[in-house]
Amino acid sequence: MAKFKKNLNPQVFLEISIDGRPAKRITFELFADVVPKTAENFRALCTGEKGLGESTKKPLYFKGTHIHRIIPGFMAQ
């Protein structure tokens, strides 16, 4: 019998709205086992926990970010 590795990678989500109306939730698995720094940076941008940028003083989060295209099962741009 094959043994399967339990998935320990974190998951995050973004709530998407279209023209101000709630649309869908996009869930991402972050491959922390492969790219730990990138996964942690993306996770922090989802939570907004890093506050403001040092030099820009702008919020470090995805809230309010515009997405112009979503390809299901592949990517959001």
From TrEMBL:
One of its GO terms (molecular function) is peptidyl-prolyl cis-trans isomerase activity. Coiled coil: none annotated. The keyword Chaperone does not apply. Transmembrane segments: none annotated. It holds the Pfam family Pro_isomerase. It catalyses: [protein]-peptidylproline (omega=180) = [protein]-peptidylproline (omega=0). PPIases accelerate the folding of proteins. It catalyzes the cis-trans isomerization of proline imidic peptide bonds in oligopeptides. SUPFAM superfamilies: Cyclophilin-like (SSF50891). This is Peptidyl-prolyl cis-trans isomerase. One of its GO terms (cellular component) is cytoplasm. It comes from the Eukaryota. It comes from Aegilops tauschii subsp. strangulata. Belongs to the cyclophilin-type PPIase family. Residues 13-77 form the PPIase cyclophilin-type domain. Its EC number is 5.2.1.8. The keyword Lipoprotein does not apply. GO terms for biological process: protein folding. Keywords: Isomerase, Rotamase.
